[in-house]
Amino acid sequence: MEHLADKEKVAARWSDSAIVFDAFSPQLYWLAVPAVQARHQRRSCAGATYPSWVEYCLNEFMFGARAERMLSIGCGQGALERQLHALRAFDACDAYDIAPGAIEMARNAAAAANIRTINYEARDVEARDFGVGVYDAIWFNGSLHHIEALETVLENVRKALKPNGLLFLHEYVGADRFAFPMVQRQAIERAFLLIPDTYRKSFAPHDFGEVASLPPLPDPEEVRRADPSEAVRSSAILPVLSTLFDTLALNASGGTLLQFLLSGIAGNFRADDPKSMAVLDMLFRIEDTLIDTGHLPSDFVVCAARAKPQLTDVSAPMPDLDGVQAGIADLRARTASAAAEIESLRKSLRRST
Fold first, then answer.
1. Can you give the pTM of this predicted structure?
2. What digits encode the pLDDT tens for the residues 247-256?
3. Domain 2-307 indexed as CATH 3.40.50.150
4. What residue spans define the domains of the chain?
């Protein structure tokens, strides 16, 4: 019953457009800062000059080919599918999300854009499979870290892909429920203190206009209470993925510091303020150095993968070994009998000559 209640809570939370807007507000959300988003996309594309990770995946791994059918899991309000449609990436696309309100908003946005090739459906993807050999590509855009049954869902994804089909992820893969290790917490806190007071003014409703003294690092228990699905098993995504898929690319997108370093103060960093951009550049260099030297892992990644070749099903019935052995014995007896007849015939021929 508790699990069902958690599911209902998650569906209700992500059906609320006000909550979704607040979570991704340009004043609060790190990736809403254009300079941060641009840098995130560069890292997501492994330095290639694509507009976003989506074009990178389509061109580098699908070679620009149009897919017959795609699937987007955890589609939210449908931005990814509309982008894929605009890029002429598919003939048809299915898109699932647990939140009915989000699905309604996605349908309305698609209808407003006169898009008729996306099938939106409210669905608990942990409770149903996706068919067998159906899709050319399956996408997760910041949704897989909300899934607890990773093994089940990714196995169903593997089955649903056509031969040589592709899986694309743009995901948070850091600590579960943001329970960061001490070294990461310290790096975030110390980098935060390098930001001048001018750029630490809070846009959060509870302390709007005040200079923040510490970054808002989450309490994992508060995270669980607010959204039971949030980063529920995020740290297990890559290990589970590796058991079922071969990785074609795994790009470190960053966010290890910046996700919470800029949370609540993102609105201070504007392109028309060169000094704020200089501060951002300093923070970029700090995070890049920590990730690229291996001191800290990247909390966000873009991954392209293909299903591993499957071995013969070990659950298939074993052959009847007793029957096989009996057949071999019978064949040997027949061979011996035939050999005896041939030898007898040779002797008869010799006597007749």
1. 0.84
2. 999 999 999 9
3. yes
4. 2-307, 320-353
